[in-house]
Amino acid sequence: MAMGRRVFLGGFTAGAVTVALGSADTAAAAEPTTTFAGPVTAQKFYTDATAESAYFKTTSTDHATTVYQAATSGSGAALNVSSENPDTSAMYLKGKETANGTLKITHVGHADGSDSWGSALSIDLKTAGTAAQGIYVFASAPTKGALLTLRNNTGLDDFVVKGTGLIGVGIDRGGTVRGQVHVVQRTKAPALVVQGVTQITDVATPPAAPDYTVGGGQLYAEAGALKWRSSSGRVTTLAEA
Question: What is the C-alpha to C-alpha distance for residues 160 and 171, in angstroms, rounded to an integer?
């Protein structure tokens, strides 16, 4: 097949598919074309090009491309993406969703629990000595939404990192995080367990009165002394410096 030739493959269930050698911008240009009127039954479509090998586009409401692995065993994946280019990502993904994730992962589990070693997302950082980050979230323009939300129990944000950077554990869904780290005890187990040394660093400025609507008080260190400020504003030194 000559470089730059556009290949039109018709007869697929989802509609016509265009495979083009060249960029997406040049795919619509007037180029020599090869048209197949009927279904394509070849076992394998293969390209080894020095330009973009394929371009798929549709204006229908169906998927532009469907990749389906029908085998029920073996190590073959439905889609295998590999890149040797260290200067950019192996895959780009862009969407304009208003109520869905740009990437939707659905793990069809096993009710008998036999998939305990399975996961909806698995990340393997290979090569000893690598300094790569496992998960990196960056907002070019700061988001008003949460950076991370984990929900597994009804009505709760089991773990949430708000756009402000405040962290909530076990708070009500969509609830207000009242501190840099806000932990809510939901069971008889302690809200926080520290196995090892806990260090409380001196405050730069003594705290103001705590939130009276939730009661309690504030524990802090000042000039090496451990202090407690009650909801009434009374400060008691628990341990001298």
Answer: 9
Distance from C-alpha of 5 to C-alpha of 22, rounded to nearest angstrom: 9
Q: Which two tokens stand for residue 214?
A: 């939730």
Single-letter residue type at 150? L
Contacts 24+ apart (CB under 8 A), 24-28: 24/52, 24/55, 24/57, 27/55, 27/57
Looking at the fold, whether 1 and 60 belong to one and the same domain comes out as yes
Q: How far is 22 from 93, CA to CA, in rounded Å?
A: 20
- Entry pTM: 0.79
User: Minimal CA–CA distance to 236: which of 228, 57, 153?
Assistant: 228
- Asked whether residue 92 is assigned to any structural domain, the reply reads no
> Which two structure tokens, joined as six digits, stand for 204?
């730069």
State percent of the chain over pLDDT 70: 83
Tokens of 177: 């995080």
- Say if 81 falls within a structural domain: no
Q: For residue 150, give its domain range.
A: 133-189
Domain count, the chain: 3
pLDDT in tens, 134-160: 999 999 999 999 999 999 999 999 999
60 Cβ neighbours under 8 A, 6+ residues apart: 14, 15
Up-side HSE of residue 61: CA atoms within 13 Å toward CB? 0
